[in-house]
Queue: 3 jobs
Job 1
Amino acid sequence: MKDIEKNLHDESIIKQKMLEAMLKHVVFDGWSETSFRNSIIENAYDISAVTRIFPRREIDLALYFHTFDDEIAFHKIQTKEVTSYKIREKIIMAIFTRLEIAHKNKEAVRRSFAMFSLPFYVSDGAKAVLNTSDVIWRAIDDQSDQFTWYTKRLSLSLVYSSCLLFWLNDTSNEYEETQAFIERRVNDILKIEKIKSKVKDLGLFQPINEFLGSKSRSFVKNKSAFPGETYFRSQSD
């Protein structure tokens, strides 16, 4: 047991040290093989040990960067006093909080956004955004049922993606324009959620609800396979 704990501890340190080094190199060379190798050299690590942790090298390290900031966002959102907030205000606050954390390494985020937009890695990018969506809903204590659990996360992932893209190009003071954009997008998506809720309550469209639910479930397979579920389960093991 002690050997296992030591290995996990060592792996955690390697991940953190590699990320710290990579973030410095990414600004100049992007999420590339060059940046990855330079990060290994800087830390004097054995390449085989690092590639066991990051089999796809810079791709897996970029994904680790994303989930690492997701974890920071999760805890930061939970520390905020939001008991008097409406759901709309909670979501807006959570999205902006996640972008505030991303601001520390904006160029690295920009480079990863570009990389995960490539055909080879677009599915990895989608999973990363789904993880952020799941983290946000968990942080604001979402109590969704089986149907809305999936649709809320899929909807929010679309909202977050558009907000992220807008934020990457925003040069306004303290991201005021991004704040306004987030508010508009959240308002739009909540209108859709209200319509879906009314349709569900009517019962007349139950076959449609079941069809949509099955489609969303087939996309993420099941809760245990959902990106956020996998991450949080691994943290509790």
Job 2
Amino acid sequence: MAFDGSLTLLVLAALVALKPLAAAACLAGGAAGGLLTPALATGAMLGALTGGAFSLLWPGAPIAGYAIIAAAAVLATTQKAPLCAIVLVLEFTHTGLALAVPTILAVAGAGLTAAFLTASRDTARRAGRVRPSSAAP
């Protein structure tokens, strides 16, 4: 549904907000959970939401393209497998090479962002563990 643009922005925003809660409830209830499909679904919803918001500013923007590109970016980041995510999403959607360049750029940007945020978190964690010197200079 995210790929054909039939969902409204309000429904997409609600799905993006409620999906983690539903997943947590299912996992807490003992259901087995995977990573591939939830990452694709979350990415597609975020992409469709972004594409829908962008189409308000620029009517005619292809919401399905945004959903496909974001699905690949989220999958690449969560699985730490960018090449696999690009090939998998392009193969699943049969878009051919039409979305290859935007997908590659989005996956690269998502990977760089994840690396930067991870490095920042690790730096902050190490800074919190360092004890100030007790000896005065």
Job 3
Amino acid sequence: MKKMYVNGFMFDEQGKNMVFIEKRKFPPNVDWSLNPFNGVGGKIESGETHVEAMVREFGEETGVQTRTSDWTLFAIMENPEWIVFYFKCFNELYFWDADTTTEELIYKLPARAEYFTVKHLSFLIPLALYPSLEGVAHIREVSDVTEVPTDSLRALLAEETNEQPLTK
């Protein structure tokens, strides 16, 4: 069974600033020590829905009690071993009330992936802030470790869409 996680992006009302957490605990076989800044989240516990896990994790790590209706699912990322449900929330009071409650420090910074962030934030933050996004983006990660050669990526895309591979 795949491991399931949630990750929440808490923004101020204008989406200019975001709550980041400096992760100090990493999943097995993952070392984010060079890029530890991430959205707030963690594992989904048995019997919990993904949005209930988001509320619980945000409360545990920031001291702010949100509601399930505050969070909007905007992306799901998966690979063969795990699934992460990405949520966003725009709330000025929650944003300013968020504070460090564990050994993992909370920061309020401009909503950009420039602060030694986990690599996925470089596209997930803009996706969360995209004004006319409807529905949920589903992202399949090919690998955490290696780059995929362009030809392999073209073949994978062709396989996914049942189209002929692109050629140069």
